[in-house]
Design brief:
Helix content is about 40%, strand content about 15%. It contains 11 helices and 15 strands. GO terms for molecular function: pyridoxal phosphate binding; transaminase activity.
Amino acid sequence: MLSSQLRRQPDLIGKYALPPGSLRLRQQIARRSMTLGMLVEPGDITLTHGCMEALQLALRVTTKPGDCIGLESPTYFYLLPLLASLGLKALEIPTDPQHGLSLDALELLLNEKRLDAVIAMPTVQNPLGCTMPLAAKKRLARLMNDHQVPLIEDGLYAEIQFGGALSPAVKSFDRDGWVLFCSSFTKTLAPDFRIGWIAGGRFNEALRKLKAVSSMAESQLLSETLAMFLETGGYDHHLRNLRKRYAAQVEAARALIARHFPRGTRATQPAGGFVFWVEFPAGVDSVALFHQLLEEQICLTPGTLYSPSGRHRNGLRLSCCYPFNARYTQALARVGAKACEMSGLPPGIEQGE
């Protein structure tokens, strides 16, 4: 498809896709956003170099060094060094494995004026895999707009929801433009396909200017090729297959955990994506488990990585995006065996926390 696009438009390789980026691709993104309940125009969207740049730009345009940012706990671990690099402070907000961010805790912090912005993944949260209920999403949008505090909504996994109709984005309930929605195609197409985007609400113009002086432009050739893939329906077909594959792999992984992990372990039931969260019973330290298994060339991400204060020491994030082969299943069984040794408990867990 890339070579076909280049044959038809050889001049693309000699052009910059200056901010806000390819109009053709932004039109397709705006059209797709309707499936998440968002009514955005192509002019509301700025293309970025993946979702991480979108998040970085959103933070830079809404905050200043020394500001305090509310985060889910556990949260995506790369947010922590990102905040530190911008001189921002992180404040953990309790997050339920089934229902997501605690809105009561958030409202208390907003009333006390302790937050300058919030970053959250209301749909298919990483690492928990949960999606906030519809009523909670509406309340979240209302809280942020009422208090006039920016919400940076990370929607990276929103198109990989399992089941029927997609749960709408919080951005779809944004009254006054205080929600900035960030996403990309890296998790649905390929990690190396570094094209992301942001719908910046009231910060839209400032975002474009900041993008221009930060990384200037995106690849025009890749942007136009991706737009063509979206136009032809190839992306929708790909997504349907991807959802089925990830749903099957998640269930297979949870079945292995039920068989091999120590009794009293709890595992989340993700609403989409390919990651979920495991909490071990007392006696299992995921950091110690990490070091022991690394000697056997098995790599884990212990729960402390997902907290700025080192919480969740008995937690573990598991990923099911890799081929579900014998090597993976044997490694997962070995993790369970080591955890049983540490806890002194036999295998057999409670699922669906």
